[in-house]
Amino acid sequence: MATLISLHYFATGPGQELFRYLRERGEEAALWEIPFDFSNRNFCRLTVFQDEKEWIWECPAPKGPKVWRYFRELRLTKKALALLREKGFAVDTYIGNGAFDTLTGIREKIGKTVNFTIDYAPKAQPWFLRGVYRALDKYVCERASAVWNLSPRMQEAREKDHPGLKCQRVLTVPHGTHYNKLAAVRKTPSDPEALVFMGHLKDNSGVDLVLRSMPSLIEKFPRVSLTVAGTGPAEEGLKKLTSELGLSERVIFTGFIESHEELEKIICSCAVGLALYNPEKDVFSVNADPGKPKVYLGCGLPVIITDVPLVAKEIEARGAGVIASFDTGSLSSALSEILSDYEKYRAAAEEMGRAYDWDVIFEKALGDLWAK
């Protein structure tokens, strides 16, 4: 098998994890990454594992208006595929992270093509692109060998938009963890009041709520601290808010950390993970399976999460965390609940993290795909 994974890049996600999984098993695999316009990268990268060796090709990322970039990105993806063929890398499995990234696999009639849906959020698009978004997704889903969804809610929303939609094969392939790989660094933290947020810093990330809650949290939990791991358009505003609230000695901003291993080491040193999706503004997470909670669980951290993504209910049902409302009082109550029996919550978090190890998830998904 020779697999090409095509995606848009901001940080490590399911596509990179799948590439790692295939490479570690000696399978020929290629990873094609186009940066989002908000990414720190300004180049596209093709990373290829072929004949037990790695080679890389890079080119400048397209710039300009969004629609124009889309056409340039399709041309560059076709160019990357042609380069692979020129190098003797015969792609027989094409996995795109979403309809746009899967389109080239459909048009080039690759043997097995998978639409690995990371997000299904038409309403997050500009109004004039929502119809195009839905139409493209329908076109790809009806022609792909399989549709992999991070959450079953994605398929429910898709079928609501397109009654009678016919997909060849639909499988839920959720976000995973590095539970097994983290055995050496995962340990009970010395300070159970050390909170952590990882992710894209934007207006609906919930970090501003945590910062505004800190003064009241400090009264109840004198050692409470917060590590913010990530970057984004709201970063400078959040740093300013931290200073205004006099929290600079308790809040650490790490900035963007490209190495997922380094990021997980930082998270493993903390005690409780925060995933506070704003129910009124977060149109992405409601149908998705966000990676943030799974990273926390893989590191052994209980999670405080709002009831936005489907996984929130599973986390609470397993005793791996607590669902909180998007307000200060609920956040404080959730933290009190976890700290009242931290070892119990931590054990449940580790158990859930173990169940979602990436290797378990990909073994099942690829077994299903390649058996057909």
Would you write up a description of this structure?
With 372 residues, the protein is an alpha/beta fold. It has two domains: 2-176 and 358-371, Glycogen Phosphorylase B (Rossmann fold, 3-Layer(aba) Sandwich); 180-355, Glycogen Phosphorylase B (Rossmann fold). It has helices spanning 14-24, 66-86, 99-107, 130-141, 152-161, 207-220, 235-244, 260-268, 291-298, 311-317, 328-340, 342-355, 358-371, and strands at 2-9, 28-35, 43-50, 53-60, 93-96, 112-117, 146-149, 170-172, 194-198, 225-229, 251-255, 272-275, 303-305, 321-323. Helix 6 links the parallel strand 9 (194-198) and strand 10.
> Helix amount, in percent?
40-55%
Count up the helices.
13
CATH class of the largest domain: Alpha Beta
Give the strand order of the largest sheet, numbering strands 1, 2, ... along the chain.
4-3-2-1-5-6-7-8
Name given to the CATH architecture of the largest domain: 3-Layer(aba) Sandwich
Radius of gyration: 21 Å
pLDDT averaged residue by residue = 95
| Succession of helices and strands | EHEEEHEHEHEHEEHEHEHEHEHEHHH
Quantity of strands, as a count: 14
Largest sheet: 8 strands, mixed
Q: N- to C-terminal separation? A: 14 Å
Q: Do you know the CATH topology of the largest domain?
A: Rossmann fold
Number of domains: 2
Decide which structural class fits the backbone.
alpha/beta
Shape, please?
Answer: globular
